[in-house]
Amino acid sequence: MRMKLEYSELWKSFHDIGTEMVITKSGRRMFPYCNVSVSGLVPYAKYFIMVDMVPVDNSRYKWNNEQWEVAGKAEPQPPFRTYIHPDSPALGSHWMKQPISFLKLKLTNNPLDQRGHIILHSMHRYQPRFHVVQADDLYSVRWSVFQTFTFPETSFTAVTVYQNTKITKLKIDHNPFAKGFREEGTHNKRHRAQKNQLCPESAAKKLKTSDKEPEFECFQDVPRLPYDPHRKDPDTLMLSNMTKEMAQDSHMSPWEEVQDPGQSLHNEGVMDYTNSEQLVPGQSNYQSHRTQEFGRMPSPSCTDSQTDYQAFESKSNDMATVPEQMLSRPQPTISLDSSQRKALDFSMSTNIGGCLKDRPGMPLYSQYTMEQPLGLWSGALAGQYTTSVYPQSHPPPHPHPSGYHHSNMAEWSQYSLFPYSC
DNA sequence: TCGACTGGCACCTTTGAATGGT
DNA sequence: AACCATTCAAAGGTGCCAGTCG
User: Fold this and answer.
1) How far is residue A291 from each of residues A10, A17, A376, A378, measured CA to CA in Å?
2) Is the CB of A290 under 7 A from strand C?
3) Which residues form the T-box domain (predicted)?
4) Which of A257, A270, A353, A404 is the most buried (most CB within 10 A)?
């Protein structure tokens, strides 16, 4: 299986300066947005394609003297969300037919967001990850074969206001929605429009004829992102029928059930971000490699801490080395007796995203899921949970502070729980 | 005091319904 | 009746900026 980032030259032009993505309370699209093409899928097998964003490091940044510099430790990670491409699940032939667009993926800084947007912290760096999961439906995603792809040039700093004016200019130059801010000689269109207020009809007419081409415009040497007006963007569907059905079944928003839980798609067990504390953007820190992970979601019956994750170094330029820390990933699963479930249920109802009140001074961010695929909200009856509770001071390793969790929790990890979570 | 954030604004694109012509 | 092209308004995506907040 191969994945290629479309318009990587445009991404690189942003990356060279230090990509920034605006995040807003209501959600903001990315620009450039993620667009990938895949090959090597089994044409008649069904796949889910997903995206999530992982912190690049454990730092918060500030823009100072025309450059990014570390401004302290990262804030506690907000609820972790995974964006499922709305075509999912679809046949391999469908995914390989044309590039896969994540145009409508939105980023927000609202930790209480109910619309399924990916929640990020401002002034933190993130790296998008693309997951290809071979699964017939959401119920089997949990333990299906998957591969994860990462493109270093897509990393970015989340901001509420652009810091680097060069980034602002690049965005204005290439994003059609920002056309109104482009310069035209000494005056931009905004100024011209103000003049045309005396004669709005002629101004509108002029715009209608001259600004017709609905494409991403690229100046100089930056490639264009083509726009096909005849293509019905699959993103407009927003959710697959499967997801909608699940939502209807549960009388909840699909996002609330599927994506809201703040769970990582895959076990990022020993991701160690602490070694990458550096200025962003580094002047020459662009890494030309691609990373790719291989794995299998654990069997529901597997309760061991280790699974058969594999990774290998790719020979191609598009798929290069796998970070060493990804080679082994713990997969803790625990079975709880009734008293433990009771304690966990109490914790779920009182402490999600907050602190364990009975452990003052030990702020926690809690995530809980149920292992049984059909258990969903009644999963307590199944008696099997996968859970992670970790300090807000991201990242650990940190001695696990909780009293009722897997022994492997000392190894900092965020467990693979998607999508059965709450 | 200052940096981060928010909401409103003007400008723009996108979308889909309505309309008319072939 | 079906198809296509055009028009139009509404919805929504942009960056900017003044004000607010911590």
Assistant:
1) 19, 22, 33, 38
2) no
3) 5-183
4) A257
Tokens of A157: 């700093």
Q: How far is CA A343 from CA A36, A356, A367, in A?
A: 44, 12, 14
Task: Select from A420, A321, A336 the least CA-distant residue to A378.
Answer: A420
Whole-angstrom Cα distance, residue A385 to residue A373? 11
Identify which of A114, A146, A138, A118 has the alpha carbon closest to the alpha carbon of residue A311: A146
Half-sphere exposure of A346 (CA within 13 A, CB side): 10
Strand B proximal residues, A:187-216, Cβ < 7 Å: 189-190, 193-194, 197, 207, 211, 214-215
Which class is domain A2-178? mainly beta
Count H helices and E strands in chain A, helices first: 9, 21
CB of A161 nearer than 7 A to strand B:
yes
Tokens of A10: 């445009």
Asked if residues A328 and A269 have their Cβ atoms less than 8 Å apart, the reply is yes
**A174 Cβ within 7 A of any nucleic strand C atom:** no
Distance in Å, residue A265 CA to nucleotide B2 C1': 39
User: What is the distance in angstroms measured between the alpha-carbon CA of A230 and the sugar C1' of C4?
Assistant: 14
- A236: CB within 7 A of chain B nucleic strand: yes
Task: Name the residue closest to B13, CA to C1'.
Answer: A177
Whether the full predicted model's pTM is greater than 0.85, yes or no, is: no
Amino acid code (one letter) for A235: D
Task: Compute the distance between CA of residue A212 and CA of residue A218 in angstroms, rounded to an integer.
Answer: 15
Strand C contact at CB of residue A189, distance < 7 A: no
- What are the boundaries of each domain within chain A? 2-178
